[in-house]
Amino acid sequence: GATIGVLGGGQLGRMLSIAAAQLGYRCHIYAPEEAPPAADVSAAVTQGDYGDGDALRRFAAQVDVVTYEFENIETGPVLELAEVVTVRPSIGALQVAQDRLSEKDFVSGLGGRPAPYRAVSSRAELDEALGEIGTPAILKTRRFGYDGKGQARIMSRADADAAWAATGGQPAMLEGFVSFEREFSILLARSVDGQVVIWDAPDNEHKSGILDRSTVPAGPLIRAQAAEAGELARAVAAALDYVGVLTLEFFASENGPVFNEMAPRVHNSGHWTIEGARTSQFENHIRAVCGLPLGAVDLVAARVEMVNLIGGDVHDWLTTLADPNAHLHLYGKGEARPGRKMGHVTRLEF
Ligand code: ATP
Ligand code: MG
Ligand code: MG
């Protein structure tokens, strides 16, 4: 089998490697960490920074195709990589999705409806943006944020100084606060020849800005909005000539689906698909980047629930292991720091 290069070595890379191995492929991980979670289950690992052009070229020479499980990387050196090896999804998708401002502009252009937003690149612009958008609002760095990092809530204008300090004066955007009922995501996979599959939309609950739980099928409100959101995701994928798994996050509001952000990769809210769908997000991503047809994505149970195991949480392992419908996943990370995703549990109900 061919060798798939993966930029990023976290738990998403780990689960991609496992899915690739089942199909007879090898994964070669490229990551800055010394012993990333994906390393123990992958055929090869190159340790290097995402900005290290030489190391990236050596990596590219050893793989047949490159994909990524982490979008917060400098595109410059990766752009060069794309000249010598096929990168899927394309660098264009990576560029759009790694900047909150460009992803909102892009998705709005295709008919998506985000919360009101304004670019903010100085303290004075934050005041102007607050004048237009009002409060409550959220200031978010345009790049490098995840799990709610790089965000500050502004409940009244008195919070503006603190918010500006909290985001470190980085290029940012101000976004109106959405009073939503539920949150959900659209997980889509698109093949090289344009075949598209969309899994059932999970209902996502967050705690402290971190995904806590995903449940499928979602309730009636989300189910009523998933078709419109899915059409938007299809349009985004088509416009980017996307190959692989693409995730769009939404708020289900009284006025329909509000687009939050997109991720050009497999996603935490799709972990339930490993046991809960006929083909997992990881397998379909591997199939797509390797040019294979996609697998069916129907639910295999009446209900599926995925709960994250976050560092510091107490978890009753024995109860999980004794439950015949529960599946325990641990990512092999050493230290359980607060807020760190250590594993997850998926429970099926038939
Ligand atoms: P991820 O780990 O999903 O990449 P992130 O750091 O990119 O997260 P967001 O998805 O922008 O951050 O926000 C994290 C969570 O904060 C959202 O899932 C939602 O619960 C809440 N949130 C973000 N933006 C808004 C908003 N405009 N109005 C209300 N809640 C919001
Ligand atoms: Mg994000
Ligand atoms: Mg998010």
3D architecture notes:
By secondary structure, the protein is α+β, with helices and mostly antiparallel strands. The chain has three domains: 85 residues, Rossmann fold; 61 residues, ATP-grasp fold, A domain (Dna Ligase, domain 1), CATH 3.30.1490.20; 168 residues, 2-Layer Sandwich (D-amino Acid Aminotransferase, Chain A, domain 1), CATH 3.30.470. Helices cover 30% and strands 29% of the residues. Strands 10, 11, 12, 13, 14, 15, 16, 17 and 18 form a nine-stranded antiparallel β-sheet that branches. A five-stranded parallel β-sheet has the order 3-2-1-4-5, sandwiched between helices. A four-stranded antiparallel β-sheet has the order 6-9-7-8, with helices on both faces. A hairpin with a 2-residue loop joins strand 12 and strand 13. Helix 1 packs across helix 10 and helix 2 packs parallel to helix 3. It is globular, with a radius of gyration of 20 Å. It starts with a strand and ends with a strand. The model has no long low-confidence stretch (mean pLDDT 96). The structure holds adenosine-5'-triphosphate (ATP) and magnesium ion (2 copies). One magnesium ion binds next to loops. The site of one magnesium ion has 3 residues, from strand 15. Belongs to the PurK/PurT family. It comes from Tardibacter chloracetimidivorans. It is an enzyme of class 6 (ligase). It catalyses: 5-amino-1-(5-phospho-beta-D-ribosyl)imidazole + hydrogencarbonate + ATP = 5-carboxyamino-1-(5-phospho-D-ribosyl)imidazole + ADP + phosphate + 2 H(+). Pathway: Purine metabolism; IMP biosynthesis via de novo pathway; 5-amino-1-(5-phospho-D-ribosyl)imidazole-4-carboxylate from 5-amino-1-(5-phospho-D-ribosyl)imidazole (N5-CAIR route): step 1/2.
